[in-house]
Amino acid sequence: MPWTVVGKSVMGTGHERRSQPCQDAWAWKEINGDHLCVAVADGAGSAAHSDIGARTAVATAVERVAQAVAEKLESLDADSELEGWRSPLTNVAKDVKKELDLTALQKEVAVRELACTLLLMLWTPSGIVALQVGDGAIVGRDPSGKMVALTQPEQGEYANQTVFIVEDKAAEQAQFMCWPFAIADCQNASESTKNSPQANLSHIALFSDGLQRLALELPIGKPFTPFFDPLFSFLDQVRNSLPDAADPKAIFDDAGKTLDSFLRSPRVTARTDDDLTLVLITSTQNISAPEKSKEGS
Amino acid sequence: MSTSFNLDEAVLFAENPEPRCPCVLLLDVSGSMSGPPIAALNEGLKAFQDDLNRDDLARKRVEIAIVTFDDRVQIVQDFVTADAFEAPTLETGGMTYMGAAIHTGLDLVRDRKAQYRANGVAYYRPWVFMITDGAPTDEPGTMEKASARIRGEEDKKSIAFFSVGVEGADMERLQTVAVRSPLKLKGLSFQEMFLWLSASMQQVSQSRPDEQVALPSPAGWGEV
Q: B residues 86-105 near A, CB within 8 Å?
């Protein structure tokens, strides 16, 4: 398997106090052996069923991305330009909204009650694409250890305002970012990204807004390296122990527990009482090989 | 394997400023407030200070500014976080220059927001909380301009403006000043009112994205 993925959503202490459920959710899917999709959603605190909204959003998102990848491979549109993912991923975000509209109808509630953010990351052989509606962020690290922000938390004027996927035009106005491996072919890359030599990212993290103030230097949204380095070392250790493991599932269970207890530790909960989601990803080869797609390894 | 990895000790956190929750008090200290009302108001301010400081997050996030008005408008306290706030002892004077005070209060909010933005500090929607026992005696036109400004800023969700009338206040006049209906203070229950304000500020200062903040009921101190 080309990637090692460890992630957790945990309920915030504030939600426990208010007897709210955990309103964060995440999902991932490996597609065709050479694509990986990860989705994170953070349900709005004010929405009555945003836990369902968040779960529906991530499940729908990874399914639709899998379809989009299959379609792209079938169409022989061997166009490796990552910018070409803008329209399919925007459509995925629109589909997520449609699915939430449908769920709201079935549950006979306003779609507003299912409001959530959506963070979407697709790792392809030619690079990484990310789409985001709302707050939270997606960050990456190159093999030299340099951290990069792939997306930024999207906030309104006030600290308790953001954008949700159920809003009109949220999909169309979503942040879209691509990080091409080896060549800068993406028009939408920020100037700094364009001008710097493109490194193949070896690690990615997605997190919901509860971790924002711990993991980013705000307001510029620069990833805080001392936050991510130990987490990625931990992930590397998990990855490296897998080839010799008799029971890989036990390794993942253990890793999940370690991440879970970190997110619930007093040091973290003293800083934030919100639900927290953190997903850590590393490529097993460190650098994905574009020309080779493997199955069932 | 994973037990050998202590994330709890290894992971360091970014230091970001706390998001701020600004609150401006516009306080009427005209002559009619002298005696028991001003004493009760001063007591209320002390209760406000104490109560905010009992909440670990609110004391770092709520910022208070005080503007008093009689014949003159005075910024008694520019914005400070609750943990640095010391309730002043106010004294009473003459007329009721309410309109001028509103302009000063809204200017304070505007300038504070600019400072937040310049320093990358996140913030919540500012509250302006006015307490009066009379009717405005500003120069003609000042009060109308102040009212129009409140309406404009409420429309843009730039502020939330609340007004409270103490016994003797012209409630009908007050009704026309702001968008939200004024509340009438029961007797001199300033203490209860400030405890309510403190509880409301605590709620707002800890609300997360898109949370509609359910404020406590003002029934203990006010009537519509």
A: none
pLDDT score recorded for residue A45: 82
The answer to whether residue B203 scores a pLDDT higher than 80 is: yes
Structural contact between residues A282 and A239, judged by C-beta atoms closer than 8 angstroms: yes
Please tell me which of the candidates A135, A217, A251 has its beta carbon nearest to residue B14. Answer: A217
* Calpha distance B222→B224 (Å, rounded): 7
Q: Is the pLDDT of residue B201 over 80?
A: yes
pLDDT attached to residue A272: 85
Residue with tokens 């003159």, as numbered in its chain: B72
A19's CB contacts (< 8 A; 6+ apart) are none
Q: What is the pLDDT of residues B83-97, one digit of tens each?
A: 999 999 999 988 899
Question: What's the rounded Cα separation, in Å, for the pair A41 and A14?
Answer: 18
pLDDT in tens, B173-184: 999 998 999 999
In Å, how far is B21's CA from the nearest CA of chain A? 9
Q: From CA B181, how far away is CA B169, in angstroms rounded?
A: 14
Mean pLDDT throughout A55-70?
97
C-alpha dihedral sign at B135, B139, B142, B144 = positive
Q: In the prediction, which pLDDT does A78 show?
A: 57
Of B3, B5, B210, the CB nearest to A44: B210
- Tens of pLDDT along B17-34? 888 999 999 999 999 999
CA atoms of B224 and B218, how far apart (whole Å): 9
Burial class, A192, CB count within 10 angstroms (exposed 0-12 / middle 13-18 / buried 19+): exposed
Which has more pLDDT, B5 or A295?
B5
A95-104, A262-271, A279-288, B110-119: range with lowest mean pLDDT: A279-288
Burial class (CB in 10 A: 0-12, 13-18, 19+), A117: buried
Closest chain A residue to B213 measured between Cα atoms?
Answer: A46
State whether residue B155 sits within 8 Å of chain A by CB: no
User: Are B74 and B26 a contacting pair, CB within 8 Å?
Assistant: no
Return the closest-CA partner of residue B33 out of B22, B24, B25, B42.
Answer: B42
Q: Decide: residue B66, CB within 10 A, 0-12 exposed, 13-18 middle, 19+ buried.
A: buried
C-beta separation of A152 from A138 below 8 A: no
Residue A2 preceded by cis peptide, ω within 30: no
Q: Which residues pair with A123 in a beta bridge?
A: A36, A128
Q: How far apart are CA B181 and CA B160, in angstroms?
A: 12
Lookup: tokens for A133: 């509606």
Q: Return the residue of B nearest to A235 by Cα.
A: B2
What does the block give as tokens for A121?
């990351």
Per-residue pLDDT band at A76 (split at 50, 70, 90): low
For residue A184, the model assigns a pLDDT of 42
- A93-108 burial: b if 16+ Cβ within 10 Å, else e: bbbbbebbeebbeeee
